[in-house]
Amino acid sequence: MGTNVQGLRRRFEAWLDGHGVSRELFALSLAQSIAAFGGGLVIPMLAPLLAGLPDPMFPESVLGLPVTTELQVGVLFSMFGITRSILQIPMGRLSDRVGVRRPFLEVGMLLSAVTLYLYSVAGTVGVLVSVRMAQGAAIAISTPALMALVEGITEHRSRGGSMGFFSSMRTLGWGLGPIVGGVIADAYGLTAAFATGALLTVLAVGMIHLTVPEVRAGEGTPEETEETLADGGHAGHGSLILGTFTSRQQATTFLGLGIAMATLMMGFAAVVAMENPILERIGGSKAGFGLVFAITTLTRFGFQFPIGIASDDYGRKPFIVGGLLVSAPLVALMGFAHSFVEFFVLRGLLGVALAGVIAPAYAVAADVADDALSGQQMAVLMTAFSVGFAFGPIVAGAVAFKGFAVPFLLAGALTVVGTVGAWWFVDEPQAA
After folding, report:
1. How far apart are CA 414 and CA 143, in angstroms?
2. pTM score, two decimals?
């Protein structure tokens, strides 16, 4: 019996390795899944936490637009992404300059754990916003180093599968976190949910420290030195464009990926500002909204790894463009949903579309990035992700007074813009 189990485990490990999942990547992905689960616990709590705090810091209107509850929630949620967007590229550049990845990842995650606990003791709206910004700064420290670390332990020929697995594991944490967070908050209160998230993040840091090796800047896999860009230019370290990129094609490819990612995430995150109106439509609890929010990440989890593997065989760009094309109408149709089932189905299908975009986009970015500059270059893509995640709720909240459907129609239209940007600018690298 024991021999059979060991044989099955070896065959499973060999299958994973053949699809780009090494032991190091598996350990890093599992730790990130746990950390994402801990961070995802707070998602359903932001709106009720804001509503229960004294000393409102919001005026009644700004530039003639009413400051609704939806806009307030959107601003609170977005402070995380705005702070992260500002700091992420400088932190990636610092990681490149220092030449290490794991210390940045661990420090950022530990600081994030501290901020998760501080949510539970925030006594005013001002403190709550400050904690949200501090959490964004903590993630800005860790994320560029994380993506550079992933780039360093993966290979071009199987990078779609590698990125699909890595992103799927993070997605699983983000998907389950809001559901469990809502359940914990309903049963034991908000403080218990925040404390649980902080402890899980510390556990993830310990796992990374014990199981994931350091990858120094410039230490890519051997085959990376053989890659060329599709226009024949080497991904080397010649003259820098805007202090970050080493060729025009590299810069335009990251531009296309950035536009696609920012608009995609605006459509995904617009639902956050609309939590209270959605709850009125579905008549649900915080756990119910957590499920509506999380089903997107759960379906993305189910499809991301196989789509990543397929992109290794059939190319990354068709999946990126196709996923964006499907996302646009799904987001727009949410403006006309009236029941839990309708929101659940639309958000679930959106997760499939996101799976078609995110893993292939990460793979293209890692293929194009230079080893010695991967911290700041990968940070460009992650910053675009953060910008969309940050401004989606703000934009949705700002136009919500025009009608429930308007935020979703606008987000869908912006996703069409992202589709055009990806089709026009993204150019996949070819192996030499």
Report:
1. 25
2. 0.76
pLDDT at 108: 96
User: d(Cα 237, Cα 16) in Å, to the nearest integer?
Assistant: 33
Beta strands at 65-66 and 61-62: parallel, antiparallel or unpaired = antiparallel
Please tell me whether residue 426 adopts helix, strand or coil conformation.
Answer: coil
| DSSP H/E element including 404 | none
Query: Shortest CA distance to 385 belongs to which of 266, 230, 254, 238?
Result: 266
Beta bridge partners of 62: 65
* pLDDT, tens only, 359-369: 899 889 988 88
CB 115 within 8 A of CB 131: yes
Alpha helices in 119-189 (DSSP H): 125-152, 159-188
**Maximum Cα–Cα distance for the chain, whole Å?**
72
Cα 211 to Cα 106, 150, 181, 355, distances in angstroms: 13, 14, 28, 27
- Buried b / exposed e along 196-209 (16+ C-beta atoms within 10 A): bbbebbbebbebbe
- Contact by Cβ (8 Å): 43, 290: yes
Contact 46, 186 (CB under 8 A): no
Which distant-in-sequence residues (6+ apart) come within 8 Å of 384 by Cβ? 257, 258, 259, 261, 262
pLDDT at 112: 95
Eight-class DSSP state of 245: B
Q: Which fold has domain 18-217+228-425?
A: Growth Hormone; Chain: A; (1.20.1250)
Q: Where are the domains of the chain?
A: 18-217+228-425
Amino acid letter, residue 61: S
Sign of CA dihedral 273, 276, 281, 287: positive
